[in-house]
Specification:
It is a single chain. By secondary structure, the protein is mainly α. The protein folds into 2 domains: 136 residues, Orthogonal Bundle (Cytochrome Bc1 Complex, Chain D, domain 2); 153 residues, Cytochrome Bc1 Complex, Chain D, domain 2, CATH 1.10.760.10. It is 38% helix and 1% strand. A two-stranded antiparallel ribbon has the order 1-2. Helix 4 crosses helix 7. The radius of gyration is 25 Å and the shape is globular.
């Protein structure tokens, strides 16, 4: 009888060890695909060499909110890309770890999966993963070296385990760091505004919002003033209300241009004062506006487009509006602002999948 008990004990122990080993193996290797929900948007062109996975997205989210990426461990990516403001900053120019201001207004981080024409205002980063590492190393922002960041991450048991789950290795390097950040940012999707509900037949626009919609999508036609619009869709079109182009939108005359924008990247003078066209989704949440944050309100933005400033590289689409501008009435301007506010996605600002995991 005792021999039978011993045998049963041995078999049970072996079974428990086997189960634990299998469980641990699954914990170390299981990494299910992440299903990206994007509603009525067209399918995104996601990177083939960085498939979205649950563990990879989780890791990227941790890194996005972790201040360990900065030299002083005091700011994170989320410090300048705040969820409640559609992942941008309310400051005209963000302040880095040295107390210094950045060179441009922080761009929003959402719907990155549909951006396929470089990143940053001037397009100096080819891929989103390239963009993710630049603020870390910028002395005006996080002011850290990649070597130091990797040393801190490799010293963390938590991060070593999470990198193992996400990428199958505890040896953390800059490529895996950038891929993790890229994965999380690619999952931040905004497509739940009042205007989306309107398109789906679930909401009704007010008369003022409908007037703004007409002005937004209708071309400027001075020959027929009653049927003329503001032609906003020329630059802000498609599901994300942007066109993946770099354009001079008439902010300054030639002699007043101080930020050469895209030209500094391409070394082509034809790109002077051209900047990436941003999405207008959540525009009511993302003040101040333009690459330098010069406009504090949407009303100021509309006033600007009512009469742009001419320069050598002004986009040709604005030329037909000169010299008298769009000649919008005060009611027209208010209607455009009212329509722009229908693009606000309040679910984005409160979605727990995008919030801090700490």
């Amino acid at each position: 009888m005792n021999k039978l008990k011993v045998l049963l004990f041995i078999l049970l122990s072996a079974f428990i060890v086997s189960v634990n080993a299998c469980t641990k193996d699954r914990e170390d290797t299981a990494n299910e695909p992440y299903t990206l929900a994007y509603g009525n948007f067209p399918p995104p062109n996601l990177p083939a060499d960085n498939a979205l996975t649950k563990e990879g997205v989780k890791l990227g989210r941790m890194l996005f909110y972790d201040k360990i990426l900065s030299r002083t461990n005091t700011i994170s990516c989320a410090s300048c890309h705040m969820q409640q403001f559609a992942f941008t900053d309310t400051a005209t120019l963000s302040i880095g770890v040295r107390g210094l201001h950045g060179k441009r207004q922080a761009m929003s981080v959402f719907n990155m999966a549909w951006h396929n024409n470089e990143f940053f205002w001037d397009g100096r980063a080819h891929l989103l993963r390239d963009q993710s590492l630049m603020p870390i190393q910028d002395e005006l922002e996080m002011d850290e070296t990649l070597d130091n960041v990797l040393a801190k991450l490799n010293a963390s048991e938590t991060y070593r385990k999470q990198f193992k789950k996400a990428f199958g290795t505890e040896n953390i390097n800059s490529l895996l760091l950038s891929k993790a950040l890229e994965q999380f940012m690619l999952t931040i999707v905004s497509q739940n505004s009042k205007y989306d509900d309107f398109l789906a037949g679930k909401a009704t626009l007010t008369a003022e919002e409908e007037r703004g919609r007409f002005l937004f999508f209708t071309e400027y036609n001075p020959g027929f003033p009653n049927a003329s619009g503001a032609d906003c869709r020329h630059c802000h079109s498609g599901a994300d209300f942007e066109n993946n182009q770099f354009m001079n939108n008439g902010l300054d005359a030639d002699g007043a241009i101080t930020d050469f924008g895209r030209e500094k990247v391409t070394n082509n003078s034809n790109d002077r004062a051209k900047f990436k066209v941003p999405s207008l989704r959540n525009i009511a949440l993302t003040a101040p506006y333009m690459h330098d944050g010069r406009f504090k309100t949407l009303e100021q933005v509309v006033d600007h487009y009512n009469l742009v400033t001419s320069s050598a590289t002004l986009d040709p689409s604005f030329l037909q509006q000169l010299p008298n501008g769009l000649q919008l009435t005060n009611a027209d301007k208010a209607a455009l602002v009212a329509f722009l506010k229908t693009l606000t996605d309040t679910k984005l600002t409160s979605n727990p999948e995008y919030s801090s995991p700490f």
